[in-house]
Each structure stands twice: as C-alpha cells, then as structure tokens.
Design a protein that fits this description.
Elements lengths: L1 E2 L2 E7 L2 E4 L4 E3 L5 E4 L4 E3 L6 H4 L11 E4 L3 E5 L4 E6 L4 E3 L2 E4 L5 E6 L2 E4 L3 E3 L5 H4 E3 L10
Parallel strand pairs: 11-15
Antiparallel strand pairs: 1-2, 2-3, 4-5, 5-6, 7-10, 7-14, 8-9, 11-12, 12-13
C-alpha cells in the first residue's frame, strides 16, 4: 500500500509495516532490502510479464471493471458487503487465489471482488501475481 508517499506491506489482517523495515526474499532467492532512504533491488527475474513495468499489475495500475452487479467480500466479517454496480471500475491492490482456484482482487482494506465477474485492464497471468490463501472466501456467511 502506498500512503502519503510511504510504502507499507500487509503482514496480517489489516496489519501493515513500513517497507523501510523489511528485507524481502523472493522464491527465486533474490532479495529486496529497504531502508528509510535507499532501496536495493537485486531481482534477476527474467519473466517479461513481471519485469515489464508497463503492464498493469496488482498495486501498479491494475483495474477491474464489474461485468455484473457484484457484492464485495469482507474477510474481517467473512460476509458480503456493499453491492458494486455493473460497469464500475476499481483499482486492485492485491490478488489471492483459494483452494478452489477462485481469484479475488482487493479493492480496499476489507473489500474484495471475485475476479470471474470482473474485466481486467490487463491480460496478465493471474497465477503469476496471486498469493495462495487456500481458505480465503471458501465458507462465506450469507
């Protein structure tokens, strides 16, 4: 999340820490170390989809437009919330996939949309950008 010019990472349900306090190790072994004033990125990723900053990605220009009226999902209450009208667009900051292969996009701190009823402004490979959360939205209170 980018707030007031500072980058934060979500480490728990609505729990955030500043990027300046992190060293991130990716699955390919590359790391990104951050300090208050300096960012060192040693990423040697050769995947052009993730290396190309021009492709909209979660938190970097990815926008979803609803193709039907859709209720948002709130993981803090495990229930549906407000209804988004058809053809409304929302920035997607994070993607998750559950054990059933359902993809969800985060549009605010506690609001998620089901990607199957959303048109994305990018043809990105969802598997590349989604975080696996097997139990996410699998037993929603209705």
């Amino acid at each position: 999340m980018n707030a007031n010019g500072m980058i934060y990472y979500e480490v728990g349900n609505n729990e955030w820490i500043p990027a300046s306090d992190l060293t991130i190790t990716r699955s390919n072994g590359s790391t990104t170390s951050t300090t208050t004033n300096t960012t060192t990125n040693t990423n040697t990723n050769t995947n052009t989809a993730t290396a190309n900053p021009g492709i909209p990605t979660p938190g970097n220009g990815l926008i979803g437009t609803t193709t039907v009226a859709q209720k948002t999902y709130d993981p803090s209450t495990n229930a549906y919330g407000q209804t988004l009208p058809v053809n409304t667009s929302w920035k997607i900051s994070k993607l998750v996939v559950n054990k059933y292969g359902s993809y969800w996009g985060q549009i605010s701190s506690n609001e998620w949309v089901w990607i199957s009823t959303v048109r994305l402004n990018s043809g990105l490979n969802l598997k590349t950008y989604a975080v696996s959360e097997p139990e996410f939205a699998v037993r929603i209170n209705k």
